[in-house]
Design brief:
- The structure is a single chain.
- This protein is mainly α.
- The protein has 22 helices and no strands.
- It starts with a helix and ends in a 19-residue tail after the last helix.
- Helix content is 64%, strand content 0%.
- This is TATA box binding protein (TBP)-associated factor, RNA polymerase I, A.
- Pfam families: TAF1_subA.
């Protein structure tokens, strides 16, 4: 908000002064700054009118009052500033209208005596200040109502915006309308959740209540299903739709939605899509092979994801020795990231994998190949004397597990990470 005000106010520029600071600096041989300069919407000029001067000074006072949290004073000045909209040359510019809305809502947010009606008045005025603003202001208005618990009112705002039209519909307007429809359906889902919670607390179910829930489900489903036709990241919308489908036992449709969301190449890569698919399959007792297939793609996208522990576990349970080697690679890649450095589960899993690999004759070769590219940074990442002291003080069990792996992972290196005689223990 303060950045908007700074851009609005801007520094005074005298276009007729040949001796301004920038030219002076250039003449003196000073290097010009490469920092990006603000592009002020309004700045003081020598020929500014009295109207422009008064609105500029008014904005300066608003800024000063907001910086010092004098919200009543800011509100009084703000009551005068919208006269800028009456300026035929600049008042119709979109940035002025947005600035007025942002300032007004920010002041009301902090003003001790603000009421919901005040917010509604501002949003309604800005909706009708220009047709290009109507849809997005309506969406923001609904967000505000939703935050204050007025779900039905928020839905009404979106329903009105959904049916709003102005002239020939442009591509941008069409996209905004789809966004409005999606959020309106999300509100239908929220109301559906409230109805479901209420019914779960009732001993006597009424057929009318069940039918009302069904109606909200149908209303929400229409647009939530349409979302998949528009490539993008739609996580909350997809989760809402799947939850309702799952509630009504439409598992085939739920699985189709999640598969399309995860595997449709027209969508941007989204790790969450694969997480949602995995969680759904796991809830419905899908085979381990299918679960591993989903986690394999997630591993490519986010090798440090917490579900990689589950992926390594599934690989370790497999009867294929190649899967055991994959499990080793998965856990080593997790431990390449500092966020897993002190995770006991990850180190225990690594130890379990190596113990399983020991049943193979070439296990040392397998470990050597996986560690070949890590010997340059793993000692500094995991096995310094500092790590030894820290782990021994904070987590002695972790210290013991890590120390038992040093000779296996880095047999050719002399490491300072020791825990008594554990580090020198032989693996046979």
């Amino acid at each position: 908000m303060m950045d908007d005000l700074d851009r609005e106010l801007g520094p005074r520029v005298d276009l007729e002064d040949d001796n301004n600071s920038s030219d002076t600096n250039s003449a003196k041989g000073h290097k010009k700054s490469k920092l990006p300069l603000a592009n002020p919407m309004c700045e003081e000029t020598l020929d500014e009118s009295g109207f422009h001067q008064s609105t500029r000074i008014c904005l300066e006072q608003i800024r000063e009052a907001m910086l010092h949290h004098r919200w009543q004073e800011a509100a009084e000045y703000m009551a005068c500033y919208p006269q800028m909209l009456e300026d035929p040359n600049q008042g119709s510019r979109p940035q002025y209208k947005e600035l007025i809305m942002r300032l007004s809502t920010e002041i009301l947010h902090h003003h001790p005596n603000s009421k919901l009606e005040d917010y509604n008045n501002i949003y309604e005025r800005m909706k009708h200040s220009g047709f290009k603003h109507y849809l997005m202001v309506s969406l923001e208005h609904s967000f505000h109502l939703l935050l204050h618990g007025h779900i039905e009112d928020a839905k009404h705002q979106l329903s009105v915006a959904e049916s709003w039209r102005y002239g020939k519909e442009s591509a941008v307007q069409c996209q905004k309308t789809k966004l409005i429809q999606a959020y309106r359906s999300l509100l239908d889902y929220i109301i559906w959740c409230d109805k479901k919670f209420t019914l779960s607390k009732t001993d006597h179910l009424d057929s009318g209540d069940n039918q009302e829930m069904r109606n909200y489900f149908r209303q929400a489903s229409v647009n939530l299903k349409e979302i998949l036709k528009n490539p993008g990241v739609w996580d909350p919308f997809i989760l809402s739709y799947v939850e309702m489908l799952e509630f009504y036992d439409d598992h085939r449709e739920a699985l189709n939605v999640l598969n399309d969301y995860a595997y449709d190449n027209s969508f941007p890569p989204n790790p969450n899509a694969h997480v949602y698919l995995y969680q759904y399959l796991k809830r419905h007792d899908t085979s381990q092979r299918k679960l591993m297939k989903v986690l394999k793609i997630l591993h490519v996208l986010v090798p440090s994801h917490e579900l990689m522990l589950e992926y390594s576990f599934l690989l370790l349970q497999s009867e294929k020795t190649s899967d055991h080697q994959k499990a080793l690679g998965v856990v080593l890649e997790m431990l390449d990231f500092a966020c897993w450095r002190s995770n006991m589960d990850a180190w225990k899993r690594l130890k379990a994998i190596i113990q399983k690999l020991q049943l193979q004759e070439d296990w040392k070769t397998v470990v050597h190949e996986k560690m070949a590219g890590r010997k340059d940074f793993w000692p500094a990442l995991h096995f310094t004397s500092f790590h030894a002291i820290k782990d021994s003080e904070e987590n002695p069990e972790l210290m013991e597990v890590k120390a038992s792996l040093t000779k296996v992972l880095c047999p050719d290196l002399i490491l300072k990470y020791t825990a008594g005689g554990v580090a020198s223990a032989e693996w046979t």
